[in-house]
Amino acid sequence: MSADTSKLATPALPSPTLDIAARRTIAANLAITGLVLLVMMILGLLIRLAQGGWLTIEPATFYQIMTVHGVGMVGLAALGGASVMWYFLSQYVHLNSTILIANLVLFLAGVAMILGADFIGGFAAGWTFLYPLPAHSAGVWETGAAAWHLVGLLSVGVGFLLVCLETGRALIVGYGSLGRSLGWPQLFGTSQADAPPPTVVASSMVVIVTTLALIGGATIIVLSLINLLVPAFEFDALFAKNVIYFFGHVFINATIYMTVIAVYEILPQYAGRPWKSSRVFLAAWTGSTTMVLVIYPHHLLMDLVMPRWSMILGQVLSYTNSFPVLIVTGLGALAIVHRSGIRWDMISSLLFVAMFGWMAGVIPAVIDATIVVNSVMHNTMWVPGHFHFYLLLGLVPMIFAFMYHATREGGRTTYEMADRWALYAYVVAGLGFVAMFLYAGAHSVPRRWAVHLPEWLLYDRIASILAVLVVVTAALFVGRFLARLPRMLS
Ligand code: HEM
Ligand SMILES: [Cu+2]
User: Fold this and answer.
1) Number of helices (H), then strands (E), in the chain
2) Rounded to two decimals, what is the model's pTM?
3) How far is ligand 2, taken at its centre, from the CA of residue 219, in Å?
4) How many whole angstroms from 314 Cα to the centroid of ligand 2?
5) Given the CA of residue 395, which atom of ligand 1 is nearest to it?
6) Ligand nearest to the CA of 433
7) Which tens digit of pLDDT belongs to each residue from 42-94?
8) In this structure, which residues have their CB less than 5 angstroms from ion ligand 2?
9) pLDDT tens-place string over residues 126-152
10) What DSSP letter does each residue of 81-113 carry, written as one string?
């Protein structure tokens, strides 16, 4: 990679029709995303150090930290992703910024409740709040702590539901229906008009799947809350597990589908070529809209009471869902930059790292969605290995790229030496860090264990050292963003 090799003009500032309220809310969202990311990374580092035996943490505290780390990361991924989507989608449809503000308020209220419930109340059931665990703490936390945690989740979820409903409303007003904004007339050949731009197509998909996910998640949260208050009220645990993993799988996937909009919008500006929605592109997104909803049983492959057909469906569709969007995005990006004389600065480099991280990270995910593999790898470190791969090296770099993009000055980004070295270090350390999870998983080290056997400590320790590098370099990216934040406010 070399800076400033291109004779191309640096891309002009985008012209989203963001009102000042939306612009400021997005700035606040990104600042919170960045700061929460750093805090959550430090919490992640603490539990990794504890697993490696370099830090003594009581198991109960370990699980509190693990719960906050997991739920916090998923929440900030959604906040950052929704900000990317809102920012770029505003170019095409009119969005009401009051909803974005309401989402931020509900998010912060939820975070406060969750932090109190977990660190003061001691709740520590993991980010998946699997029923009936919240009500069965064996004395580790009070019912009230579990209830506050769940109400906090509900608050965050309602905020994102509002964002989805508003986005869906705006898409329907602008394009006539969600089918049209997904480009069905062009996909099925009934219209010769230009297909909707990639941002509109991706947002339509996100709105549909996330709304369903949030309704599912909220249902189980409300049922669990009733169960906490009235223990005689019980419901089917397998049903709850299905709905929770449906929610969790779809929700976290949709955060990537939102952030990838940054690739669709920013790369073409760099290469000076438009990214048009081809029919293959439309087909991939429409296909994923249904498939992402039905592949969640790959989380339940060891629930042997599940119907066999659902397991097979989970495996087969995990393959067919994962690749189309990935391939149209990857090939699309290559086609856009090929011989375009693209300028490799922080933004374009981060976007390329992100594409690589997302694609490479999906491979261990799909491997684990294979029944014969899952029967060995289930609940091993392979699992955090695959999702840290595409989140740490896919989603997070996309958010960093967007942070640089939203705060660049007069269309120019400088590729400062420190940033460049930090990016190399982030990628190398990040890769090593996830490799340690995967390697440990392949050697059957269990996930979510506070105390590790002596023969596992080496992986934990190497990972801890690399995690320090990840945290330091991430702090540099976030610090740069915060220093430039005033540019977003005026
Ligand atoms: C410096 C970076 C990071 C470190 C050191 C770190 C460390 C950890 C550790 C040690 C665990 C527990 C592993 C186990 O099951 O034994 C974990 C779980 C998890 N991490 Fe990270 N992580 C980092 C970054 C991230 C990022 C960027 C995300 C998402 C955006 C993320 C999301 C999660 C989630 C969802 C869990 C699962 C929690 C649960 O099992 O309930 N982490 N992390
Ligand atoms: Cu999944």
Assistant:
1) 18, 0
2) 0.95
3) 19
4) 9
5) 30
6) 1
7) 999 999 999 999 999 999 999 999 999 999 999 999 999 999 999 999 999 99
8) 249
9) 999 999 999 999 999 999 999 999 999
10) HHHHHHHHHTTTS---HHHHHHHHHHHHHHHHH
